[in-house]
Amino acid sequence: MSRRYPVPTPLMLGLVLAFGPCLARADDTALTPVTVSASALTLGSAQMSTPVSVLAGDELVRRRTATLGETLAGEPGMAASHFGAGASRPIIRGMDGPRVKLLSDGSEIMDASTISPDHAVALEPMLSRQIEVLRGPSALAYGGGALGGVVNVLDYRIPTAPPAHGVEGSVELTADHAARGAAGAFELTAGSGNFAVHAEGLARDARDYRVGSGWAAGSRVAGSYNQTESGSFGMSWVGERGYLGLAFTRQQNEYGLPGGGHEYEACHLHGGHLHCGEDGDEHGGEHDHDAALAGTPYVDLDSERWDLRGELLEPFAGFSHARLRASHTDYGHDEIEHEDGIASVGTRFRSKAGDARLELEHVPLGGWRGVIGLQTGRRDFRTDGDEVYVPPTITAKHAAFLIEEYTFADWRFEAGLRQEWQRIDVDGPEHDRSHRGSSVSVGAVWDFAPQHSLSTTLSRTRRLPSAEELYADGPHTATLTWERGNPDLKAETAHNIDLTLQRRAGPTTFSISVFHNRIDDYIHARTLDADEDFRLIEYAQRDARFSGVEGALRRQLDAIFGLTLFGDYVRARFDAGAGDRDLPRIPAHRVGLRLDAKWNAWEAEAELLRVGRQDEVAEFETSTPGYNMLNLDLSYRGRHHGIPWQIYLKGSNLTDELAYAHSSFIKRAAPLAGRNLSVGIRVSF
């Protein structure tokens, strides 16, 4: 079957024409690329008023997995939603979904992963060059609704300068034991003068993964396989004052949905209660779980995305820097089900979405340096098939924001302001909805001693309800839920305070943060009824509070060895009132000890992690036992005829412990992976 590829939107073409004449003529020397970062002011992590996690270089190679959520799950304050091996979003300080904004080099990732945890993020960590996690005033540049934080994934798709020697790139191959999987990736950049091109690609084939010992359901999670193909081609025009580039990326995934859910297909509603009996069975009767496992459903995903990126120094009087980001995504996935041994499409999800943002950094005024920006986006989302639990909707969002900083002596002050407008048009009997919200944040960093800082942030942010929270109505068996929206939802209002103490250099370094977040009218999926694992949920609002601590302390023991103590804890509760107090799927506390060593071309790391029992649970939710994890990493760097190469060996859960992720919707159907050994080789040129 032939596939139709989208063309750049008129908005993209107009922006190309607008930026193109501003670029300088060809020149032998290109401008050093402007640093691209999640911070609107391109600050270093030491300058931020709130903690920033950055994965890059060898550390990123060690942490990378097949999904973004699992890649970041080891960072303090972060966890993963974990839906088998194919879908996993980051959870930051107990918040997930639309409260965690995912970006591709500053432009929003327009997939369906915010709608449900069984939907994969349309992004490949193995093709990334740096991953940043940001909270605080600068996060307002990307959305007031990012109460948890912003994850910005930097890549190579659009070159910002031609390679110094004409061609550069890398090739990487990996294989692992637990899923009997293999993956390979390459990236190549070439160019000269003012023109550069880039190509990259990836293929992954992982089978059902093996769990820890002692699981009653067997040794492997049925339907936990993951097959991925991704490719991208981009080009840039680079001048003395900036660059402008365009890239096309296509990603195809096929991954299983562990846990099935077919045994609940006969469920229906009687008022506010579930009835899942069939042929006269009583409510709460036994289900045929073996039959469900015989035909595990899976997702067939296809995402096609265009990216436009440009930066320009001194675009016009009064401004020192302009940055442009725009994207258009044609996304779709089919949820394939099995019946009588025949696979058929149960539900189709389709989304055509685009966004654009323009940032202008003004010259210092009275000591203040800042960025003013505009952002707009539109998403046309619809579903067809057996589980049309969300009607067709068109969501339009517009925003204006301002980020400013001021430095005085040992102090740096930062402030952010954002105004958002949203309109959701729905195809159905429900009424269209419009919302608006203002968010503001202020922060300060005090360098009270050399390499020591104390920072704090105060913020008041507004998150606007999503189309799914407003209009959902129907079963979603992948998450074992029947969802009911609430068209009367209003915007959330969050008041947050964050305090961070850091030491950045010396034999002992540390970063410790405490936070408290009070959210008025917190939108949540309230469970009304349950039949075994299947739940009836309705989106409702109630005041909630999130409090916690996270941090890491490292001591360099000698010239070779270093020791790090790290951990996190978050407590999330509703305010006093009727009903349950604890929020569902809040990650348990963690504490870990990591020993690292560097000797000549060798690097090694041993980590012991303790995840506590989570028994502070919501109604209809079960507690999750704690577990220990032992992980080891070993790598060696070398050169062959001047070409650098690296070989690495990773071992995770070496004690083969049976472990469950409390944050997962399907924790009992899909435990975490058991003992796993993986090996990889990376060659750069």
UniProtKB/TrEMBL annotation:
One of its GO terms (biological process) is siderophore transmembrane transport. InterPro entries: Beta-barrel_TonB, Beta-barrel_TonB_sf, Plug_dom, Plug_dom_sf, TonB-dep_rcpt-like. Coiled coil: none annotated. Residues 1-26 form the signal peptide. Belongs to the TonB-dependent receptor family. Residues 48-150 form the TonB-dependent receptor plug domain. It comes from the Bacteria. It comes from Thauera aromatica K172. PANTHER family: TONB-DEPENDENT OUTER MEMBRANE RECEPTOR (PTHR30069), TONB-DEPENDENT RECEPTOR NMB0964-RELATED (PTHR30069:SF40). Keywords: Cell outer membrane, Membrane, Receptor, Signal, TonB box, Transmembrane, Transmembrane beta strand, Transport. This is Zinc-regulated outer membrane receptor. GO terms for molecular function: siderophore uptake transmembrane transporter activity. Its main location: membrane. It is a multi-pass membrane protein. Pfam families: Plug, TonB_dep_Rec_b-barrel. GO terms for cellular component: cell outer membrane. Residues 301-654 form the TonB-dependent receptor-like beta-barrel domain. Gene3D superfamilies: TonB-dependent receptor, beta-barrel domain, TonB-dependent receptor, plug domain. It is found in: Cell outer membrane.
